[in-house]
Specification:
Length: about 525
């Protein structure tokens, strides 16, 4: 039998087959992942298949209706077809019970994005079983225009792209470059998710091994709070590419071995050498740029570049900062040490997945970044904007002489506050100390289910989202005056936003000592830091 073609830009480091103990460690990993509720039941997976079949039928009907409205004969409109593709964790085969299905609708050339938003929501409501579609939210103006909804309780992220074909064959493939012809940058972005996931899968030697290892890495990264592209950590695609690269280097290895090698290789990686799964391709399109640190100054600044394989190759980790790189490297080291112990039988998998201690035993000082609005709709947009800018504040903080590390928590916290007077509204927006101390000074925090519509009893609800940055001070740091950085972020970035509305939105940044952290950032069983006892004189 001919040796399989080499996957990856360098030959494997080892083609050794797994030993018995590698296999039993892998089985133990799968058992632990099951205990941690990482796999979905086959009945629930079957439900996903049914939903996707329905979305395929709705897509075909959508294309047909648009073309008929354009005056095409019914026969041609019906034959034009349309096809759905998936990307994200569903496509990679590493989804769990709570995962969404990231889905792309591909239509023929005469069907446009405007048609997608004009027709698809109505068709969903008409063609899906009664009551199956809920929380339907079209977001046409986002970076990637999207229709979000739940279908039979499964979250769907639906995006759209057309290609330069008048008929979509049932076996259409988006690999290669043929389908990129005539697309603008925005359209390319929509095809990109599917193209990247499909290509990653073709570049790993054993898909099942890759999936098991990636499930392990994703769970580890989530528990350690280093999973979130928007906050300066790798996202799902970046973690997948790192694992895929290790799979290429150990093509015959079992999942447990991949995890051990993952930590050892990534910990010692000589950044900014990029992680890439194949050579970067150049395409025939002069208007499309691919990642190239020799050519582009911006690309040279990437600290831990992980490059997507599908043309046009891009850096999936351009958000990583000096601080988050340090945090990631510490976690890789911790993970590597635990992995060695697991493989040598000295500890168990669950130790790798122990939750982070960002709040419990993290920092003495935190910054709380609070975005607030007086309506839920306004807050959705405002908090999304502020979240996408938190990394800029991290950059300002990193440039401050007294700060060694500005460590963001990977998720924001959403809260609601009932206010009984204008004064309380202002307080809830501007000073959130009441979360910690006295609820009555700036509106009560609303518990789930305790909500009354605005207006009753003269109440206003204030919606807030808060992100936390832990501050590690430089050696010998004395002053922690961050007013310049904070003001620049507030006034020059957040409040300069073209949609900023003084009557609806507010932004505030406050210093928070560990003992002043609100209780809801702690989970059951976690002990909140307490105020040090005052020394008696
Ligand atoms: P889950 O199992 O769904 O939690 P996932 O890896 O599928 O994990 P997402 O559904 O959040 O994660 O994202 C799937 C892909 O969608 C990843 C990325 O290519 C794209 N994506 C997600 N969020 C954004 C965003 N804000 N902007 C651009 N692309 C995004
Ligand atoms: Mn997803
Ligand atoms: Mn998604």
């Amino acid at each position: 039998m001919a040796a399989p073609a080499q996957l990856g830009m360098t030959p494997p480091l080892s083609t050794a087959l797994p030993t018995e103990s590698d296999i039993s460690a892998t089985n133990a990993l799968i058992e632990e992942l099951k205990r941690q509720n990482n796999y979905e039941s086959s009945a629930d997976s079957e439900k996903r298949t049914v939903v996707l079949q329905s979305l395929q039928r709705i897509t075909e009907e959508f294309v047909k209706q648009v073309l008929i409205a354009q005056g095409q004969p019914g026969k041609i409109a019906t034959a034009a077809g349309g096809k759905i593709f998936t990307y994200g964790s569903y496509r990679l085969g590493v989804y769990g019970p709570g995962s969404d299905i990231d889905t792309l609708v591909v239509a023929p050339k005469d069907v446009t994005l405007d048609h997608f938003f004009a027709y698809f929501p109505d068709l969903l409501m008409k063609m899906a079983p009664a009551g199956a579609i809920t929380e339907l939210t079209p977001v046409p103006d986002s970076f990637v225009p999207i229709i979000k909804f739940e279908y039979s309780g499964i979250s769907i992220d639906l995006i759209f792209c057309h290609v330069q074909l008048s008929q979509i064959p049932k076996d259409l493939s988006l690999l290669g470059m043929d389908m990129l012809r005539g697309l603008d940058e925005k359209e390319l972005r929509c095809l990109n998710g599917t193209r990247v996931t499909d290509e990653i899968l073709t570049l790993v030697p054993q898909k099942a091994v890759f999936r098991t290892a990636l499930r392990g890495i994703k769970l580890w990264a989530q528990r350690r709070a280093i999973y979130a592209n928007i906050m300066g950590f790798p996202g799902g695609v970046a973690w997948a590419m790192m694992v895929a690269r290790v799979c290429q280097l150990y093509p015959k290895a079992a999942g447990s071995t991949i995890l051990l090698k993952f930590f050892r290789i990534m910990e010692k990686w000589t950044w900014p050498t990029p992680v890439q799964l194949k050579k970067i391709e150049n395409g025939p399109f002069s208007n499309i740029r691919t990642w190239n640190p020799q050519l582009y100054h911006g690309d040279k600044n990437h600290l831990m570049p992980i490059i997507t394989p599908a043309y046009p190759s891009m850096c999936a980790t351009h958000n990583i900062t000096r601080s988050t790189r340090t945090i990631i490297q510490r976690e890789l080291q911790r993970g590597g040490d635990i992995m060695t112990n697991i493989m040598e039988g000295r500890t168990q998998w669950k130790e790798l997945f122990v939750k982070n201690t960002f709040f419990v035993n993290g920092y003495k000082y935190y910054l709380s970044i609070i975005a607030a609005s007086t309506t839920e709709e306004a807050q959705l947009i405002w908090s999304g904007f502020v979240e996408s800018k938190v990394r800029l504040l991290m950059g300002f903080l990193e440039d401050h002489g007294s700060i060694a590390i500005a460590h963001p928590f990977n998720k924001g916290f959403e809260r609601k506050h009932k206010c009984h007077s204008e004064e309380e509204v202002e307080k809830a927006k501007s000073c959130l100390h009441h979360q910690v101390k006295d609820a009555s000074t700036a509106g009560e925090s609303i518990q789930n289910g305790d909500e009354k519509p605005n207006g009753t009893e003269n109440r206003t609800t204030v919606y807030t989202s808060t992100w936390y940055i832990g501050l590690e001070l430089s050696e010998g740091a004395k002053s922690l005056d961050l007013s310049y950085q904070v003001d620049k972020f507030k006034h020059d970035i957040c409040m300069k936003w073209e949609k900023f509305d003084q009557d609806l939105n507010a932004i505030n940044i406050i210093h928070t000592k560990n003992c002043d952290l609100p209780v809801d950032v702690f989970c059951e069983g976690e002990v909140k830091p307490t105020r040090p006892q005052k020394k008696k004189k």
